[in-house]
Design a protein that fits this description.
Blueprint lengths: L1 H54 L3 H7 L8 H11 L12 E8 L4 E9 L1 H4 L4 E9 L6
Length: 141
């Protein structure tokens, strides 16, 4: 009879361990997976915004001086491309925001920085950042 009581105690102990240790570990693993996936979507949005910003370089000024001068509303275009290429994030209420567009005349590149608040997805106060870079090329005449 004593062995039966000990077995019941081990079942109760196993249930407690699973409830207080394994379930939170599984929840944390799922949250880390969601964070990694959303970081990948944010990187995709930053890369698309950088390509859009590089396409907004004034070609005539670039050919004449080699300087990266933007024509038009570069922030608006980059923001639109970031939203369109954010994957599933906008459907979850997460909208990437373009925070900086940095032209580099020395390397002929445009770097775009994007950030997003991932709180609606994770339920935790998390801000993610990503940076995309695109090279500006022109055929000299």
């Amino acid at each position: 009879m004593r062995a039966m009581r000990e077995r019941g105690f081990s079942y109760a102990w196993t249930a407690l361990v699973m409830m207080f240790l394994l379930v939170p570990l599984m929840w944390m693993g799922i949250q880390i997976g969601c964070l990694q996936a959303s970081q990948g979507e944010l990187q995709k949005a930053a890369d698309a915004a950088a390509e859009a910003a590089a396409a907004m370089v004034d070609v005539e000024a670039f050919k004449a001086t080699g300087a990266l001068v933007f024509s038009g509303d570069v922030y608006g275009v980059a923001q639109a491309y970031a939203w369109r290429n954010a994957g599933y994030l906008p459907s979850r209420g997460i909208f990437p925001q373009v925070t900086a567009i940095v032209p580099d005349n020395a390397t002929r590149t445009v770097r775009v920085e994007v950030q997003a608040d991932l709180s609606p997805l994770l339920g935790l106060p998390v801000r993610a950042r990503a940076s995309g870079t695109a090279q500006v090329r022109s055929i000299a005449r």
